[in-house]
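Reopening closed ticket. The problem is back. First fold of the pair:
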Amino acid sequence: MTGSPSEGWKNFADGDEAEDVPLWQVLAHIRSDDLDEGLSANAAIIGQVRPPIARYYNVAFVVSFAFGFLSVLSMIGLLISAAYPGATSSFYYLTLIMLAATVAPHLLRQAYQYGLSIPEAPLELPHGPDRLFDEVLRYLQRVDGPQAFYRSRFRKKRIPLKRRQFFGRLRYFLFSEHSKDRGMVMRFPTAMSLPADLYLHRDDVERMLTMSKPKRKGGPGRNTKYRYDEAIISLIGDPRLNALDLNDRAAAILNIKNWLSEWFEANADESGDVPRRDQLTRYAEKIFTHLRGCYLH
């Protein structure tokens, strides 16, 4: 990060609501000083894991809607059958079955995201991890961490969000810029969909921006030196490079950044200091350009 937290905050200021910062903007700004670049990187990561989850969500919605409609027809039949005692019991049980089938997709989706009981620790992700997503989530999962909140739909009051909301399997979707993605994550512990936005207070954001600045070591004024050359050399001969789709530049660069990040995580020194993902972008772009040049020739 560059500049002081107060300078970085200017990118978030928005009239009377400058005290409330959308969660997706926070992550994007921590990832990169260029907000658009940060949003694009976050969207690419979420986009890789969205398709199967979105398909399941859409199927569950259709099933629930269909059985809900049938349950209404069954209730009408139940009222009409009141005049025919022999048919009443059949419509009664049919209505119960339809109502259960209407609710079942929501309960299954909730159980998949948060388990069958209150989660005491973050659940296993159904997709590959991202270091920066997890780093920001660790702040939000702590008892003494920043207090996320949403605004109530009618009174516009700030409603604090339980930290266990960030324990679910689909917790990455809470950082999506799109409300439809956030809507696929249920508010814990109810089955109500999330409001349009989650927020952090400006003071919490400033502290997170300060904590996310790269660490220094080796004396004042000396920047941490990362072993970029070794990380790049480690990819030479990696079979994953041959499988890259060089026609999709954004996805290819994202994958290369993921592999570089994995190498730094696995080979971190005692300080545990590793480069931020935005610091890997230009190296990933150089690798892509080299691969693309070899492919064309």
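Second fold of the pair, where the issue appears:
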Amino acid sequence: MTEEWETEEERLRRLMKYSPKKKLEWLREMHEFILKASSEEDRKIRIKLREMR
């Protein structure tokens, strides 16, 4: 983690260096975590919101 504040452009450049595989792995891990940490009611709300799209 950097100690200085970075600009939006610097942040985007840094994040673009990650491989697509790493990004997808991170998203999968976050999805699994959210499912474990969510209540049944939260899951139902997410499903409704997803269907509305």
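Update: turned out to be a display glitch only; the data is intact. Helices lie at 8-16, 20-37, 40-52. The radius of gyration is 16 Å. Please close again.
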